[in-house]
UniProtKB/TrEMBL annotation:
Source taxon at top rank: Bacteria
Keywords, sorted A to Z: Membrane, Transmembrane, Transmembrane helix
The species this protein was found in: Alkalibacterium olivapovliticus
Protein known as: O-antigen ligase-like membrane protein
Bilayer-spanning residue ranges: 12-29, 35-55, 67-84, 96-117, 129-150, 191-207, 214-242, 254-274, 337-361, 367-385
Length: 394
């Protein structure tokens, strides 16, 4: 695997640079909702990460990796050409070009980090660094939540300078007695998306599980009171446990009580909150009183005209959509959606619990032009989909 740039800078302090690079990835995830100059803070952090990979001489890609990276770029270029020549409705070439550059940055960083981790066998270090930042985000979230209850907006609003500050982003149905934890993100579901990503990276990594980290991450997800993210945690976790039980790959261990007992106590202590935020929310969705689920499942698909079904509206030419599959169809048409659906089906055949995570996460949050989506893919490829001895354990 040839290097694009050869330098000894990394070898002078490999431990320092490794932690720095992995820390930047976590930071990019944490500030992905912060906006400056109409772009995410995470974009600038990832640009810095790519720059460091270059000057450190750590951009080393195999032929397979370069081919894999060229495939989405090919579809992106094809989509651009088709829309320039055949889109008779509206197509902003400047917007499409700048958005394509962002996708190029995201894809480059994904390939750089994936190759770096695989080549140097840094899976454990990457996971450990990710866990530290995930736990830190929960601590920050708890502190912010307490400050909200104490009406100390002079403190927590400083942390939200570059993101949302409206009460609808953290109060449950405008109920001042129920604050949903969102930490540094713009809304609780985005924090849950991040924590689910790190949680299942631990679960599917094949390494010995850190029970305390898993317990903290579970509580972090629950405290977001995000219906979709809690469902993802429960559905994927249950699928993982059931498949392992069927295969007889799991044995009861006493340390499981460390997770189970606090969970039971927490459910009892917060039962009133659970009844309002989970049980009643479920009933509202079933009866149609809550339209958010309908919007995510059905209305996400209404922004594409039949005459553009093949190549879509063009990159970045759709309103915000909370569903990646609907986003791909709307912006890239069947040309973009079909390969992604085929990959999803491949996961279903390979590992049903990883498929469950991938499908639900893509169905619960959109934003393919945001770093969070691409960093989720990075964690999927590094920890969930990679070949390892005990990959097929759930």
């Amino acid at each position: 695997m040839p290097k694009l740039i050869t330098t000894k800078l990394y070898d002078l302090a490999p431990g320092f640079w490794t932690v720095t690079l992995f820390s930047l990835i976590s930071i990019a995830f944490l500030v992905s909702d912060w906006i400056i100059f109409y772009s995410s803070f995470g974009d600038f952090v990832l640009a810095l990460t790519a720059f460091l990979f270059l000057i450190l001489g750590q951009v080393t890609l195999s032929k397979k990796q370069m081919i894999a990276g060229s495939i989405p770029l090919f579809f992106l270029g094809l989509n651009y050409i088709l829309n320039v020549n055949f889109n008779d409705y509206w197509f902003d070439t400047t917007r499409a070009f700048l958005s394509a550059l962002k996708i190029g940055l995201y894809l480059s960083v994904l390939l750089m980090v994936y190759s770096f981790v695989k080549r140097k066998n840094l899976y454990k270090q990457f996971l450990k660094t990710s866990n530290v930042f995930a736990v830190a985000s929960i601590i920050i979230g708890i502190v912010i939540t307490l400050l909200i209850y104490l009406n100390r907006d002079d403190i927590y609003l400083v942390l939200w300078t570059f993101t949302r500050t409206d009460t609808t982003s953290y109060l449950f149905n405008e109920n001042e007695n129920i604050v949903r934890m969102r930490s540094l993100f713009s809304e609780p579901a985005h924090l849950g998306y991040y924590l689910n990503t790190v949680f299942f990276a631990n679960v599917f990594s094949g390494f010995k599980k850190n029970k305390w980290v898993l317990a903290i991450l579970i509580f972090g997800i629950l405290f977001t009171l995000s219906y979709s993210m809690i469902i993802i945690l429960c559905a994927t976790g249950s699928t993982y446990l059931i498949t392992r039980l069927i295969k007889k790959d799991i044995k009861w261990q006493q340390w499981y009580w460390i997770v189970i007992l606090p969970f039971i106590v927490g459910v009892g202590f917060f039962w009133d909150f659970i009844q309002v935020t989970i049980i009643q929310r479920t009933l509202d969705i079933v009866t149609g009183a809550d339209g958010s689920a309908y919007s995510r499942i059905v209305q996400s698909w209404i922004y594409l005209e039949n005459e553009r079904i093949i190549f879509g509206n063009g990159v970045a030419h759709s309103p915000p959509i909370t569903n990646i599959y609907a986003y791909l169809l709307t912006d890239f048409g069947l040309v973009g959606l079909i390969p992604y659906v085929l990959f999803t089906l491949y996961l279903l055949i390979s590992n049903v619990s990883i498929f469950m995570l991938f499908f639900l996460m893509n169905s619960a949050k959109g934003g393919y032009l945001n770093p969070a989506f691409w960093l989720f893919l990075l964690y999927m490829f590094v920890f969930c989909i990679r070949k390892k001895g005990n990959q097929n354990v759930g």
